[in-house]
Amino acid sequence: MHSHQHDFGQFLFPLQGSLDIHTNSQNINLTSDYCFYLPPSFTHDFRSKDRNEFLILDIPTHFLLWDTESMYVQMDEQWKAIRFLLLEEAGNKNTESAALNDLTRYVTHQLKSSTPASIQYIHDHYKEPISLETLAGIENYHPVYFSKWFKEKTGKSPKVYINEMRLKEARKLLVNTSWTISYISQEIGFENSSSFTRWFSKWEGTTPQKYRRIKNG
Fold this sequence. Notes:
The chain is α+β, with helices and mostly antiparallel strands. The chain is 49% helix and 17% strand. It is built from nine helices and seven strands; from the N terminus they run E-E-E-E-E-E-E-H-H-H-H-H-H-H-H-H. It has helices at residues 77-90, 98-113, 117-125, 132-139, 143-154, 158-176, 181-188, 193-204, 208-215; strands at residues 9-16, 19-23, 27-30, 34-38, 44-47, 53-59, 71-74. The strands form two sheets. It has a four-stranded antiparallel β-sheet, covered by helices on one side.
């Protein structure tokens, strides 16, 4: 493994096989389920133990109008479509094609707007118990580094972020449904209504019953 960096951004799309990538904060085994972005001047090294094939998009710095950071992204339908279009364009002998420029601009825009995998995991599973280790593992970060990274990304700790999502859902269910407190507590992932009431009162400053009465008049 040889440490190096580039003076351009680089996006790696796995086609087959896998690649081990190491940076100062991440150790990633990149497979066909994920893609990975390396910012300019980002020290990294890599190796592979098996045969692989990757589509690599080098992004000149004039396409990057803001500071970017490394990004480990699940290959959902959107990113698969981007990879397909890039592969199609890779067969074009005109390396200065407008389509390739447009695709590169679109990819850089997605770097700014895409939701990191760990945050998307919270949005999908916030009603379930989520450990810091689980979230850090999704990003291939050490838990301590992940906590710092998460706060820089969202302005909140993972615990506060998760609780705020659960609280938002609890408020909505209390106001917009006639469900019992017990049923709502189970829906949000609490074992019983007593623990839910204590938690809600701590964060909202009032009990679920009082909150419902006030909001519903």
